[in-house]
Amino acid sequence: MQQIRSFQHHEESCFYSAILANVQQVITAINPQGEIIFWNSYAEQFYGWKREEVLNRPITALQVSTAVLSDAQQVLSQALSAGHWEGRMIQQGADGQRLPVYTMISPIHDDQGQLQAFVCFTENISDHLRSEQALQASEERFTKAFHASPMAMLIVDCATATILDSNQRFVELIGITHDELLQHNINEVPLWSEPAMWQRILAHVSRTGSVQQLHTHTRTSGGKRRNLNLSIEPIEIADRASLLFIIQDVTEQHRQRTQREVQRLFFEQLATGASLLTIFNTLLQGMERYFEDCRTTMLIHNAEQQPTAFIAPSFAASVRAEISAALAENTSADPSKLLQPTFERINATHSALGRLLQAQGYTDLWTLPVYNRHTTLLGILYLCFEQPRQPSASELEYLNSSMSWIVLATERRSSDEALRQSELRHRSLLNALPDMILHLNQDGVCLDCTLGEVLPATEMVNVVGQPLESWLPASVAEQIRHAMQAARRSQTTQVIEYHLRRATADSDYEARVVSDSQGNAIVIVRDVTERKQLEAQFLQAQKMELVGRLAGGIAHDFNNLLVVINGSAALAADSLHQDDPVQQDLQEITHASERAVALTRQLLMFSRQQIATQQPLNLNELIVNLNRMMQRLIGEHIHMQLELASNLALVLGDTAQMEQVLINLVVNARDAMPHGGQLTIKTHNEFITPEVASLHVGLEPGAKVGLIVSDTGVGMTEQVRQQAFEPFFTTKPADKGTGLGLATCYGIVRRHQGWIGISSQVGLGSSFSIYLPQLANQQPQPVDAPRSAELHQGQGCVLVVEDDPAVQHLITRILNQHGYTVLQASDGQQALQIVAEHHAAIDVLFTDLVLPSMSGGALARAIRSLRPALKVVYSSGYLDDQLAAQTELLAEAPVLHKPFTPQELIRCIQAVQQTT
After folding, report:
1. Which of 171, 180, 530, 636 is deepest in the core (most CB within 10 A)?
2. What is the pLDDT of residues 648-662, one digit of tens each?
3. Considering the entire predicted model, what is its pTM?
4. Would you give the DSSP letter of residue 300?
């Protein structure tokens, strides 16, 4: 068995020895006594000695360098103590050549820990050393070129954005030391103002390999702004991916280009007769482009030393106004005291202009006097800067050139300004008129004209030198010619009216024709379209108001009838058994009465005589609450879109009535789209200007809340649109509508102090616009829920004042049946007489608001002056404008609206009796 193990061990040793002997790397082994015990085939090729020449020989017997021999024992000792050693060495081959190598030495121990040998792995690093030397030489050349370059250069680490190095030119450009620069990353150096620029550069380099001609700017430590062009290339520095920035300062090129452009534009404007304002704005803006970080202002004095300020448009409008005021304060002193330019810091002791600019963030103010050719002070040029700075020689040269252009423009323009201003004054008087003024010769050819506001901008034509027929219809031209002849004969003004169809809209015109001494004609044409529309709207509004008053009067009388019908039917039903066949007839009477009540309420809403319970209301909430109901109303074939404004203002309104307006408009839109379409409900805040309000009768200026309901339905003709709000007018079949839907909307909106209008075109749909006044106090007030009173037998005395005998009789019957003593009067005078003669207590006054001799409110106050404890209940079939204005009257007592039921009457009387 021992022989078998020995044989196996021998076989394994032979196998591993064969591998080590033939591997393509120098492998040698040295025993603890320093003798070579292993030398593979690759070692023979590397050193030039055969295995048999070196085996069992001490390493000192080899022809190697003295330095290696002296260090060999020390290296072996270090390998033994540390368990490993590696490093560079210089060794010598059989031919005497010195070889730079990299050697790794490891000690080998047996199972008992006894040192057996040292294994050495050696690699020739001659090529590696040559590459290192070449790279080092290349880096030295790059470093020399980098630091000697006239272009500013910068190296940045890609991974960390750290600045690795920069040349002296970049240090001079930025104005900070090299050591300070190396303490920052690229985002902390003012090469760009956009925070994400570094990431964009990395992405661009990754995508395209480099960045070429990236324009940016920086500001030096002295406050001067510099324009830069950046070129960026990827490089590696010490195995670190980096970017090389090559930076070209193009500030002077940029300035020279700006100066050339401004000079060219200046002389073009001067040659074409541009105004001084235009020319000076060009020069001021050119200075701002030249310096880039400044704002400019110029104060020019005329011959009377009256200053005119020219302020660059780069200032905000509010700041320009403040600068004008500050300049006016500066010129209160003698401006001629300013003889020399000043370039100074702004401080607290400066003038109003300086303090204003300092508050805007400017630190330096340059003040330069501008003299004309006669050395007279022409004006003052101001330049303010955000950073402290002093002008360079080239900058002063540019400023001197700009001031010479200012003098040239002023002198060139002043010679013809007076004549031009005279012509402009006369022309502007004519052009300011809204009318078109034509000067025609006897043949109807236009000699001169002002178009005013008569023709739309899209139809502006040059009519000078053209006969009337070339730009007017033949019929209109003929009318004007006849008027010209009549004006010449009679020497009076002839007035004609005509209508024109235009691309945008039809228009109505009035032409006044007069004849001059040469027989020519002056024709003054005015667009009277809006006036005629307003007249038509006013007539329509008057008609609606009259119809509303008629509807209110009818509803008042009808409500009294309904009180009697409802009350009598209710009393009859109470007196019969539930199974009595007459009960069904009474129910039919009640149902018909309820429908009549609804019709009456619609009439009252249209006529604005329905009492509304108004409270702070948010139209957005109202629309959202009705959204599901409206979806069911319009059906699935119509798509409804809500465009509700955020922060919508509140209005003062009656929720139920405004819900009825919205439902009526939605149903109207649905009926206009039988085959489907788009319904849009939009809300917004809007301020109606007096100019806009003047175009619409009934629309008052001020802050409004707009509600717009639009559809894509069949639309309306102009005649239908004008009659849409009239009661009982409808285009629907007889069984499809009553004609009160839109009339009710009109009445409710007008009752809410609002305005409603229609815009529509046949085939393109309709849009209803409602504008309600915004509530001044936008904090909604909580509304107390009404408390229901339990109905029971009452007691006490009620004075009933009602001018309709049937209604009075019914109220008396109802009150008597519920235990009340009733006193009856037909008007206020009779009621006062009853109070004076009736010495017993009267608990409640139940009076109609509208009475023949005096109003119910006046009656209540008169009786309360005699009996302060008297409780009051008002009744009304409608509320006219005079009573609606008396809000304190409606606040002091409840109002029972006609028609009412017996239960509502008794509940109201009992509720007011329970109040303290």
Report:
1. 171
2. 999 988 877 888 888
3. 0.34
4. E
